[in-house]
Amino acid sequence: MRKKKNIQITNLELISAGAKGVSIGRTKEGKTVMVANAIPGDVVNVQVTKSKKNYCEARVLDFVRYSPDRTDPLCMHFGVCGGCKWQNLSYEKQLEYKEKEVYSNIERIGKIEDFQKLPIYPSREQYNYRNKMEFSFSASRWLTPEEIQSGEEILDKEALGFHIPQQWNKVLDLKTCFLQKEPSNKIRNYIKKIALEQDLEFYDFKERKGFLRTLMLRSNSKNEFLVLLQFFRESKKEREKLLTCIQQEFPEIKTLVYAINPKGNDSIYDLDIHVFSGEGFLTEEMEGLKFRIDAKSFFQTNYNQAVRLYEIARDFAGLKGDETVYDLYTGTGTIAQFISGRAKNVVGVEMVPEAIEAAKENAKYNNIQNCRFYCGDMKDIFTDEFISLNGHPEIIITDPPRDGMHKNVVETIVRIAPKKVVYVSCNSATQARDLELMKEKYEVIKVQAVDMFPQTHHVESVALLKLK
Ligand SMILES: C[S@@+](CC[C@H](N)C(=O)[O-])C[C@H]1O[C@@H](n2cnc3c(N)ncnc32)[C@H](O)[C@@H]1O
Fold this sequence. Notes:
The protein has helices spanning 91-108, 145-150, 184-197, 236-249, 303-317, 334-340, 353-365, 378-381, 384-390, 407-416, 428-438, and strands spanning 8-17, 23-26, 32-35, 43-51, 55-65, 116-121, 132-138, 159-161, 163-164, 167-171, 212-219, 225-231, 253-260, 274-277, 281-286, 289-294, 324-328, 345-350, 371-375, 395-398, 420-425, 442-450, 460-467.
């Protein structure tokens, strides 16, 4: 008998896309095979890497036939860099599989059948749609197998780019990325060039030493930039020389900020952010509302699609102007403020204190007086006392993180029974799970998939629920 680890499957036709962007095939016996780094329509020979009762995972050994839906990836780093894994699949097919995933999750996991499936809303831009990018400096860049095998001494070891998937200490030296508009690449490449000219140390992940640690580039719809540099240690002379050069080179940089981070991780959320030039934040506008975005603020990364997503949520809510609306998981209060002109009161809840501070500041900045914001974990804050204090909501808009809502939150919604729930989600599997928990009391009227992240398998979905 063959050992499990040596199982190979030949001429496997990949017929669909599954969760997390894998492609799905079926063996002759009907077992599901999940294959990474291939696309639906490919016919492949694979090696099984994990075998369970109902499914197995496999890696491609070779391609017997390529899918007719393949396209040439735009990016030279495709296949090495962890992002944009669907660049080799036509955009029409990306949309088709995303739409299918959303609606089949709701049918299969949510066990809900009779609802209106609106056609997926495509992204206006298929590339250059992100307004936030984060890169790491590394003293030892990721080397290609050819470079390693050549035996030649590697002189240019420094990198500024993305971490290689599952390799915490290896960074791809990025030349071009098509996710953010120029001058994004120009700024990143210039910073690397002058850092080398100025002989500045790139971070050494193994030794935990160096000077330059991370770079964040945020932009707004006017294509103004906020640049954040994270240094491992303070060295005023070197830091000021570098930041001065960057600021002088790019008039698009409206504000240049930095942080000193000697910690084991590179999260900025517990660090002080220092302003080197400008105001320390960018301003973004939506329907005349202004939002301040600093280095730490959460803001949807695809601006044009975020506007559309909020419009859909607002349309689904069908506000008349006399309602109390709760915006659960409000972040910096963007949805709350976006709908505030069409509701009597809006109550936003969020667990990150800085986000709630920003929500309050933005509401003040926008002269909005009918929004109240509270900071806390939804499962703890959403009590009867909270509801009697803030008023019974006619409508709840909820936009939880990927894990979906805590079951106590779902139970409270069902118990207090608002007339409508608009459920915005970046993970239709957990959304479907929550919809099932609500289905005795709520009818799912319609669902709209929205593409916020072209070239990836990620998809957003908005569901309208009505009290039965
Ligand atoms: C998908 S984001 C939505 C943000 C916002 N609606 C927007 O469009 O900008 C989810 C938000 O939920 C917050 N969050 C996560 N877990 C939470 C919890 N248990 N209680 C309250 N807020 C939470 C996150 O900090 C994040 O801001």
